[in-house]
Write a structure and sequence with these properties.
The complex is a heterodimer of chains A (about 160) and B (about 475). By secondary structure, chain A is of the alpha+beta class. Chain A is about 45% helix and about 25% strand. In chain A, a hairpin with a 3-residue loop joins strand 2 and strand 3 (about 85-90). Chain B is of the alpha+beta class and about 475 residues long. Chain B has a domain at about 10-160. Chain B has 11 helices and 20 strands. Chain B has helices at about 20-40, 45-65, 105-110, 135-150, 175-180, 185-205, 215-230, 320-330, 400-405, 430-460, 465-480, and strands at about 10-15, 70-75, 75-80, 85-90, 95-105, 110-120, 125-135, 165-170, 235-240, 255-260, 265-270, 275-280, 290-300, 315-320, 365, 370-375, 380-385, 395-400, 405-415, 420-425. In chain B, helix 5 (about 175-180) packs antiparallel against helix 7 and helix 10 (about 430-460) packs antiparallel against helix 11 (about 465-480). The longest helix of chain B is centred in the last third of the chain and has 33 residues, at about 430-460. Classes of the chains: A alpha+beta (about 160), B alpha+beta (about 475).
């Protein structure tokens, strides 16, 4: 089914591996805190035995999340074609969006504190439609800036109005 | 900041009746809350507060009126307002998307109107002038629109407001409106609730309990009345540029005007060049009568959406299907005025029933020469229509359960509004083909539309031969920008 989501005459450019690293760190931290909380409460308070069951649940969530994050990060990709930007996203819920450069209204580059730590940023393309979900997370900061400048320039030269 | 809004500027004021119209609402509210005290002759502290409010309001209103000035300077409409905190608003003429004229009830009694300006970017209604005499509101609207067109075409000289001609194309008669309002899910729910309550209390033998039905009845009546008053005397007109003297008949329409309302008369003009798509809705209760509803998607217009309530996007609340098709063709005139319901729709593959057991029979998508059409809906059949030239972006979407069955959705993104075209549960390979085909057609339509616009601006520019080449090149620049 790979060819179903294939840009015409181009290869998908992957996002930075730092995206998966960052997400896995967030997931592991949350899972660790949850597991630790269960253990501490269980040892300190006189609780029945069954809250211990949360620990394997947390572990299972951690493992499943770890795998999904990897698949998701591999599936993300973008391709700059002659007149359009193709973005592929999701792993379970797959999607591909085609945005003609001429339809772009503006381009956002965002980097939260955690993303700055990992030196990545996300680029978000906006058209006149709120439904356009053309967001590329986890680009290296330099690449994000390059993409933004290129998209802005292309958007200006090809603008098709509404 | 109002830098040099000196008295030498030829500014204009709002209607001097403005404070009275605005104040009347205050007076009504104040009176409404204290009328029983006044009737008893109890002019105590409340009476004084009332008097102070009215006097204060009158002074404030008058000062506010004195301080509110508007004028056109260059390519901007400037509005200075504010009693304590001065505010100066500049609205760029070339950013104007549309101008509506609204007449709230009290203003209508005085022959006044409010001018609402729809500014590109954000989509919010940013500018408003309230209140102007109706004739002046119409005049200002024409002037602003004419100036906008002039600015957009890159002309320095501002021509006088070009005359426009109007022609009525549809009118909603009151019988159809009332019947259509009664044939709604709300009515069905209301009748069911009333019967259930009646039977319950009847069986219990406590008819006094029926008093509990009163709020239900009132709520229902209020909802229906609100719709009735919003859609009352609903008239659709086409707006044409004034015909050249040597050609017979009217030229093709450039806009559609919708007039509606019982207490508050509302006039909205839709520029046909801004139409992003249309939506034909056929609720199951209307189908025996062959009625349908028509909505339009316009960039920056889709904010006022209440579920089922009166919306600005409605071009015809209810009409026979033939009339709706005719109106839809007018709205799609930039795409060559095709009939969207003539497009042959193709159903999804039979295995789609595993993900949409009831709906899959009613799904359909079709590509015509100019339009992309998708139909959805089991009870309420909705036909979403988008001309290729208006496709913003395209998406191929596949959920996990669709992947099992080799299905996928194709979604066409339109500006916020009623039109949300999504071809659901197509064969995955076919969905991808549809995407590529639509994409190619959209690209062609886009460049075609640009060329058309270029030709139109070139024809329109009436510059003398010496300047014509530069005007044409600037027009080309602006259209390809």
């Amino acid at each position: 089914m790979e060819e179903l989501f294939a840009p015409p005459g181009a290869e998908w450019r992957p996002v930075a591996p730092a995206l998966a690293r960052m997400r896995r760190l967030v997931l592991s931290t949350a899972a660790g805190v949850a597991a630790l909380a269960v253990v501490v409460l269980e040892l300190v308070l006189p609780l029945p035995w069954w809250p211990w069951l949360f620990v394997p649940v947390v572990v299972a969530v951690e493992v499943a999340g770890w795998v999904l994050i990897g698949r998701n990060a591999r599936w993300w990709g973008y391709a700059e074609c002659d007149e359009d930007l193709y973005v592929r996203h999701g792993a379970l819920f797959r999607g591909m969006v085609v945005v003609p450069y001429g339809r772009m209204q503006y381009v956002d580059v965002q980097a939260g504190p955690l993303e700055q730590l990992f030196r990545i940023a996300s680029v978000h393309l906006h058209t006149a439609s709120p439904g356009t979900s053309a967001r590329i997370p986890g680009l290296p900061a330099v690449e994000a800036a390059r993409l933004r400048d290129r998209l802005t320039a292309l958007g200006e030269s090809e603008a098709a109005g509404l | 900041m109002s830098g040099g809004a000196g008295p030498d500027r030829p500014f204009r004021r709002l209607s001097p009746l403005t404070p009275l119209v605005r104040g009347s609402l205050v007076v009504v509210v104040v009176l409404g809350s204290t009328w029983d005290d006044l009737l008893r002759g109890d002019v105590g502290p409340i009476g004084w507060v009332l008097l102070a409010t009215v006097v204060g309001g009158a002074v404030f209103g008058t000062v506010s009126w004195l301080r509110t000035k508007y004028w056109i300077e260059g390519d901007e409409l400037r509005v200075d307002t504010g009693v304590l905190a001065r505010q100066s608003r500049r609205i760029r003429v070339d950013r104007l998307q549309g101008i509506d004229i609204v007449q709230p009830f009290v203003a209508r009694l005085f022959g006044l109107a409010e001018l609402k300006m729809d500014v590109a970017g954000g989509g919010a209604r940013e500018g408003s002038l309230a209140f102007l005499p109706l004739a002046e509101a119409h005049r200002l609207r024409e002037t602003l629109l004419a100036r906008r067109d002039a600015v957009r075409e890159g002309e320095a000289a501002v021509t006088a407001p070009s005359g426009t001609a109007e022609r009525e194309v549809a009118r909603l008669d009151i019988a159809t409106l009332v019947l259509s309002l009664l044939l709604s899910p709300e009515t069905a729910g209301f009748v069911a609730a009333a019967v259930a309550l009646g039977v319950t209390f009847g069986l219990l033998g406590e008819l006094g309990g029926l008093a509990g039905v009163v709020p239900v009845v009132l709520g229902f009546a209020w909802t229906e009345f609100r719709r009735l008053s919003a859609y009352y005397r609903f008239t659709v007109l086409t707006v044409h540029d004034a015909a050249a003297p040597d050609t017979p008949g009217l030229p093709a329409p450039t806009g559609v005007q919708v007039r509606r309302g019982l207490f508050e008369r509302n006039t909205a003009t839709i520029a046909l060049s801004r139409v992003q798509g249309v939506l034909v809705t056929e609720p199951w209760m209307w189908r025996p009568f062959g009625w349908a509803r028509l909505d339009v998607a316009i960039a920056g217009y889709g904010r006022e959406e209440h579920h089922g309530g009166p919306t600005a996007s409605t071009v015809m609340p209810v009409a026979p299907l033939a009339a709706v098709r005719e109106l839809a063709r007018i709205l799609l005139i930039d795409a060559g005025a095709p009939d969207p319901l003539d497009v042959v729709l193709e159903p999804p593959p039979a295995r789609a029933r595993w993900v949409a057991p009831l709906r899959w029979r009613y799904l359909g998508v079709g590509l015509s020469e100019r339009l992309l059409v998708a139909r959805v809906g089991l009870l309420t059949r909705r036909t979403h229509v988008v001309p290729y030239a208006r496709v913003q972006s395209l998406q191929l979407l596949q959920r996990p359960w669709q992947r099992r069955l080799g299905l996928a959705d194709l979604q066409v993104d339109s500006p916020q509004g009623p039109v949300r075209l999504r071809a659901r549960h197509r064969d995955a390979r076919q969905a991808r083909e549809l995407l590529d085909r639509t994409h190619g057609l959209a690209r062609r339509a886009r460049t075609g539309a640009d060329r058309q616009r270029l030709v139109r601006t070139q024809q329109k520019s009436p510059s003398p031969s010496g300047a014509s080449s530069s005007a044409a090149s600037s027009a080309r620049e602006s259209s390809s920008r």
